Amino acid sequence: MGVYSINYSFLDVWIMLFVGILVYLFRKAIFPLTPLILGLVLAETLETNLRRSLLISDGNFSILFESTISIILALLSFF
Fold this sequence. Notes:
By secondary structure, the chain is an all-alpha fold. The chain has four helices and no strands. The N and C termini lie far apart (43 Å).
């Protein structure tokens, strides 16, 4: 009732049902949900800032690994 009453759309109900089934399957498979939720929340910000840095460098990916701190952070996030 709560999802339907926001927009009066059955699409929202189907999306809620799909996400509920997906979360149930993830929990049965003992898949950690925290990294998935973090990825969903931070993905838009990451994409925006990546696009901005590539526009500044004219599409050159080496700008991401020019400084020492960026290399250290990339290695830490990899491990």
